[in-house]
Design a protein that fits this description.
Elements: H1 2-25, H2 35-52, H3 60-82, H4 84-91, E1 95-99, E2 102-103, H5 105-111, H6 115-124, E3 133-138, E4 144-148, E5 171-175, E6 178-179, H7 183-186, H8 191-200, E7 209-214, E8 220-224
Antiparallel strand pairs: 1-2, 1-3, 3-4, 5-6, 5-7, 7-8
Length: 225
């Protein structure tokens, strides 16, 4: 029983430390992680796992390694934000793979990307012909950025000289039966006015609303549970 409790305490401790270190390093989606972020996350996670499963009582070594590794990762993330040269060393730079009908073979070699994979990524982005692309960049997170050819760019209202109004934005008011703090103030609506619209929809209690939002015109939309 004591061993189980010991493992649980170490597990929660390592998770908390891992969460804290990641917060210090900065939130980032997995798809937007650089190679350094990926390696650092795996390393910190491995140390945290070693710490949480250490039953010999010698968990201080893993704890110190976790803290030191986290501090180094944090300092490197600060340096990458401050220095363009250091950022280029750690994260790399975007590579031009294709421009105006020409392939850049050296960029393919540096990125370890073959032509089959390149064409597959282009198709995934909705481009099935090389003529539809003006520029293709390989970003540091492993994704392609594609600039469409002039003839393939989507037509915008500005191109057609069509006047458009302000975009209609919906502000979240109720999530899972609870009114969000400060939500009604942000849309300049009183609680009585909001509840009046809710009751007009046949909903009597706030806790019966799964989601509610107010659009730019002050009209509320309610979705029951």
């Amino acid at each position: 029983m004591l061993k189980v409790l010991y493992v649980l305490v170490l597990s929660f401790s390592s998770l908390f430390i891992l969460f804290l270190l990641n917060k210090l390093s900065g939130n980032r989606e997995i798809s937007n992680m650089s190679m350094f972020d990926y390696v650092a996350s795996i390393s910190i996670g491995s140390i945290a796992a070693e710490m949480s499963t250490n039953l010999d009582g010698d968990w201080w070594a893993s704890f110190c390694a976790l803290v030191i590794y986290g501090i180094i990762t944090f300092l490197i993330s600060v340096l990458t934000n401050k220095s363009l040269k250091f950022r280029a060393i750690v994260q790399g730079k975007p590579e031009v793979l294709f421009r105006n009908g020409k392939f850049y073979r050296e960029s393919f070699k540096r990125t370890r990307l073959d032509l089959t994979e390149f064409l597959s990524l282009c198709r995934n982005a909705g481009y099935f012909s090389l003529d539809d692309m003006s520029l293709v960049l390989f970003e540091t997170n492993g994704k392609l950025s594609i600039l469409p050819a002039s003839a393939q760019k989507p037509v915008t209202p500005a191109d057609l000289k069509i006047p458009v109004g302000a975009p209609n934005r919906t502000t979240d008011i109720i999530l899972d039966g609870k009114i969000l703090d400060g939500a009604l103030e942000s849309v300049n609506m009183s609680e009585s006015e909001f509840l009046s619209q809710m009751r007009a929809m046949g909903i009597k209690r706030v806790k019966d609303v799964f989601y509610a939002g107010v659009d730019s015109g002050g009209q509320a939309r309610f979705y029951g549970k």
